[in-house]
Amino acid sequence: MSRNYKISDQSRLHFLSFSTVYWVDVFTRPAYKDILVDSLNYCIEHKGLQVYAWCIMSNHVHLIIGTPEANQSDIIRDLKKHTAKTIVKAIADNPQESRKEWMLWLLERAGKQNANNKNFQFWQQHNQPIELNTTFLMEQKLQYIHNNPVEAGFVTEPHAYPYSSAIDYAGGKGLVNITFLD
């Protein structure tokens, strides 16, 4: 997977991680992961987000992103706001969700502790951005993202995990419309 990446001055790239409150394992069900996938693709198509790598784990997300023309922090804010509302509603409306009451209770509890929320808080507020301004950092974070599901024991090969861009880097087509680096 080693490449010689050309880091563009036009689009500052960042590695971001964001997690659910209390590290709740929400993303164990495909329906909730699919909401995040759809939202990433929407932001790519309509808001100017460029996703170079991504992975959804059980309670957190890793991304390598860039935005040559748009405000990156505004896009991530909107993405997190939309996915939070949509996923909380999906949990509440899912008759097969065995953890529904417990998860909604935790999300409501977190929301009440934060004056910025009306009812629920889904995501932790920080994104932990790291600017990727060298080839070494880019390669390090790309490998970290793609190996995360292997390290967690979900799969034995990175490209076998469907909620990651590893399949794209292995020559296949993943769920999110990623941008490859030069």
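Next protein, fold it too.
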Amino acid sequence: MRVVPVIDLKAGTAVHAVRGERERYRPVSNVSAGDDGDPLALARVFRSELGLEELYVADLDAITGEGEHRETIGALARGARVMVDAGVSEPERARALLDLGAQRVIVGSETLTGPEALDRLLVELPGGTVVLSLDLRDGGLLSPDPALAGLSALEAMARLHRAGLREAIVLDLARVGTGAGLDVGLIADLHAAFPELELLAGGGVRDAADLRALRDAGAAGALVGTALHTGVIGSRELAELR
């Protein structure tokens, strides 16, 4: 069971994401790294204290077109295996992230212009470097493509699944940072329909019991933020999952 810490970057700071309401995000507070939202300090804590060497990094400014965090992403990639969501829909921007040291590039449905854009990315980028993220709100897909917007996760995956796709994220923004728990049944349904995909679930992980439930549903791993920052999931809980 992969536990992947989340670092959301906004205006140079790692922020605490809640329900996808980005204008309300504030610097994250972590029991070991402090409350100033230093992304590099967070990454060091995740690695040295929890033994987690993989990171999910969302460049929120790049996603919204307000800037980018190239230097921070490069620094994070030097100390961890990083997957980055920076609002990429075109191969050139994706290659720039790989050149910074990112191991994989996340293609989020929230900014994906359509299935054809995903096809171009899969064709032009090295195999295994593209991760599809189904960005949901209350179960409906977020997408600028009218043909995709509002679809259920199962419907969207049926439209976007490709032979070259190995890994996918299922992220309901309405659950992020709320402690509301995840839709474990949805993960089970997606795993049954697309067993060859490695599924990562995100948004609402509360504790180790949620992680065990996701594992039993067929998830390969989970994106975790708040539960790691507060210490609810710590080294003991992670050791029990290994």
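About the second fold: The mean pLDDT is 92.
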